[in-house]
């Protein structure tokens, strides 16, 4: 007998009935769940406990803006240019994109089977053999938490030091001391933490508002760079590989320089945490 007074046979009957009943996708309940979402929760044996604030449009906007691919490739391309050069940066971006596409397809497959918030550490606790679920989900959860901490620290640090770069552009005499960069990073952290604590209900709306602006600014930035920056021929841009770090082989050089592409393209799993 379950805590709500239903026996196993009744629960199975309800589950089978729900799986054969066309869901109503227009009516939301008190949690913001539509019929399809309620049916999926019943199918997985889960009970809705938190408010659903993200829908399809905001789920598309959320990872696109959070990944910030075109911004990060402008801000963090020095590693790829030093270890690989123009050609190395370009081709490492291409094969990293292909690799991430396979990863995204795998995540999408798991999300279709278990569409719940939580992401990898939840799926790892569900899909492996029972005897390995606990240890694998524990390892996956800690790896995810450490990645979040490192990723958030790097992004907030870049935001803080980017402010210093803007100040230096306006005032060339500004020396951009490291301690001020640290304070700006702490300020960015406080702003983000405060918004996530007290303003999370506005996040989906902001994502939908900023998405067209994000795309428009991307095209504007590309246009400005295309028009004003010096150009090189296609052979130099695509086939010039350089080793600025003194590594032993070009293969190793490209592996080291690939960090720029990985940093710019990482984050395709973000929407799995916002279901």
UniProtKB/TrEMBL annotation:
InterPro entries: AA/rel_permease1. One of its GO terms (molecular function) is transmembrane transporter activity. It is a multi-pass membrane protein. It comes from the Eukaryota. Residues 8-26 have a biased composition (Polar residues). GO terms for cellular component: membrane. The chain crosses the membrane at residues 53-73, 93-114, 135-167, 179-197, 209-227, 247-266. Pfam families: AA_permease_2 (PF13520). The keyword Transport applies. It is found in: Membrane. The keyword Transmembrane helix applies. Residues 1-35 are annotated as: Disordered. Its main location: membrane. Keywords: Membrane, Transmembrane, Transmembrane helix, Transport. Gene3D superfamilies: Amino acid/polyamine transporter I (1.20.1740.10). This is Uncharacterized protein.
């Amino acid at each position: 007998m379950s805590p709500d007074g239903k026996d196993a046979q009744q629960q199975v009957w309800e589950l089978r009935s729900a799986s054969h009943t066309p869901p109503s996708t227009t009516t939301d309940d008190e949690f913001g769940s539509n019929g399809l979402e309620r049916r999926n929760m019943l199918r997985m044996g889960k009970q809705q406990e938190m408010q659903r604030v993200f829908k399809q449009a905001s789920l598309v906007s959320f990872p696109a803006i959070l990944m910030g691919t075109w911004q990060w490739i402008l801000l963090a391309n020095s590693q790829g240019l030093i270890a690989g050069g123009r050609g190395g940066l370009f081709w490492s971006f291409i094969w990293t994109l292909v690799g991430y596409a396979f990863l995204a397809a795998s995540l999408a497959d798991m999300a279709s089977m278990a569409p719940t918030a939580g992401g990898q550490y939840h799926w790892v606790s569900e899909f492996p053999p029972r005897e390995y679920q606990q240890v694998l989900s524990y390892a996956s959860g800690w790896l995810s938490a450490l990645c979040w901490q490192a990723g958030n620290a790097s992004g907030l640090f870049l935001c803080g030091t980017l402010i210093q770069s803007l100040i230096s552009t306006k005032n060339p005499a500004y020396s951009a001391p490291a301690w001020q960069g640290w304070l700006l990073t702490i300020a960015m952290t406080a702003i983000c933490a405060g918004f996530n604590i007290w303003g999370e209900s506005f996040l989906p709306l902001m994502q939908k508002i900023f998405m067209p602006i994000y795309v428009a600014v991307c095209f504007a930035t590309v246009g400005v760079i295309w028009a004003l920056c010096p150009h090189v021929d296609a052979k130099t841009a695509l086939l010039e590989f350089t080793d600025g770090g003194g590594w032993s082989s070009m293969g190793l050089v490209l592996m080291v320089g690939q960090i720029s592409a990985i940093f710019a393209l990482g984050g395709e799993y973000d929407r799995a945490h916002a279901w």
